[in-house]
Design goal:
binds guanosine-5'-diphosphate, 14 helices, 3 domains, two-stranded antiparallel sheet, globular, Rossmann fold, alpha/beta, single chain, 318 residues, binds magnesium ion
């Protein structure tokens, strides 16, 4: 029998139990008091370095992630971060991990899924990206606390909420394809904002040069800055460009460490995460409050013309 106690689970996860690790991720995914108990433990450990892979559906994120897993495990290091196991989270309804892709991909992923050195977990959106934007940082913390120095998170970068989730990463790789300019017009700004590295995947197709030019001119508009996102080309299906991508991720990490950007970003992210949790808790309190007598009393006063909503709200807050 597997324990339900977060401390026991964490201890087991640290010594390599995948079942315990999976159970912990489920806990933070489902929320509630058990999650609180788990959070009290996982947030006291060193966080994993998180690499985010984002971009439109079908861009080749999963295929690329698959390549990164393979070459990453061979390297065993991302600059100064050494690892012998990798944690992967997929927040992508079209991902092979969640069963949305062609058979070949799924078989390949399953090879990794049975590899002792890889922990793959897909997190369902369940139409509730808001909840996920809390659960993803928690799940990443679970990985860090369980002894994963490096984690990869795949997200679909189509809307603002997904971009929010992508911002849980320390290095964000935005995956595009030749010709993306036309199809991704609406969300270009959002992706541009989070990108630390651009990848033009499907480099075996025509239109690379135009896409590169398009990206370069968008980056020019952003003005001078200490880190200009490099634009790499990959063909995930045959793996070409993967090694250069690892190098670029390592360079970005090194830049962040030496410039102090890593701490600045983590501080900003922590501020946003705290605000989100605070917002969620305040909303929950309001729901509780709205089921109470005091609330009904204020509603009665409003109906009787004895108060206004602003005054009543202030009274209830007190
Ligand atoms: N021609 C070509 N096809 C690719 C490449 N990378 C991925 N694909 C294909 O694009 C499709 C979508 O890939 P997938 O990794 O599932 O994309 P995701 O939705 O971004 O995760 C699959 O059929 C892949 O085989 C590439 O570099 N070149
Ligand atoms: Mg995918």
């Amino acid at each position: 029998m597997i324990s339900k106690d977060p401390a026991e689970l964490l201890a087991a996860a640290r010594t390599g139990s995948r079942t315990a690790l999976a159970r912990l991720v489920t806990m933070v995914e489902s929320g509630g008091p058990v999650m609180r108990a788990a959070a009290a433990l996982i947030y006291r450990s060193e966080p994993a370095y998180v690499v985010g892979i984002t971009g439109p559906p079908g861009a080749g994120k999963s295929t690329l992630t698959d390549r990164l897993i393979t070459s990453g495990l061979v390297r065993g290091a991302l600059g100064d971060v050494t690892f012998d196991q990798l944690g992967i989270l997929c927040i992508d309804p079209s991902s092979p991990f969640t069963g949305g892709a062609i058979l070949g991909d799924r078989i390949r992923m399953q090879e990794h899924a049975t590899n002792d050195h890889v922990f793959i977990r897909s997190m369902a959106t369940r139409g509730n990206l808001g909840g996920l934007s809390l659960a993803v940082p928690d799940a990443l913390r679970v990985l860090g606390a369980s002894g994963f120095p490096l984690a990869v998170v795949e997200t679909v970068g189509v809307g603002q909420m997904e971009v929010d989730i992508a911002s849980a990463a320390d290095t964000t790789v935005v995956v595009t394809n030749p010709g993306w300019g036309d199809s991704m017009q609406a969300n270009k700004a959002g992706l541009l904002e989070v990108a630390d590295i651009f990848v033009i995947n499907k480099a075996d197709r025509a239109g690379i040069r135009e896409t590169r030019r398009d990206l370069e001119s968008m980056l020019d508009l952003g003005g001078e800055r200490a880190w200009r996102p490099p634009i790499l080309e990959t063909t995930a299906t045959d793996g070409s460009g993967t090694e250069a991508l690892w190098d670029a991720i390592a360079e970005h990490r090194a830049h962040q460490v030496t410039s102090g950007d890593l701490s600045t970003r983590r501080r900003e992210r922590t501020r946003r995460e705290l605000a989100k949790v605070l917002g969620a808790q305040v909303s929950a309190r309001i729901v509780d409050l709205s089921h109470g007598e005091d609330y009904e009393a204020q509603v009665n006063r409003l109906l009787a013309g004895e108060s206004d909503p602003y005054s009543s709200a202030e009274i209830l807050l007190r």
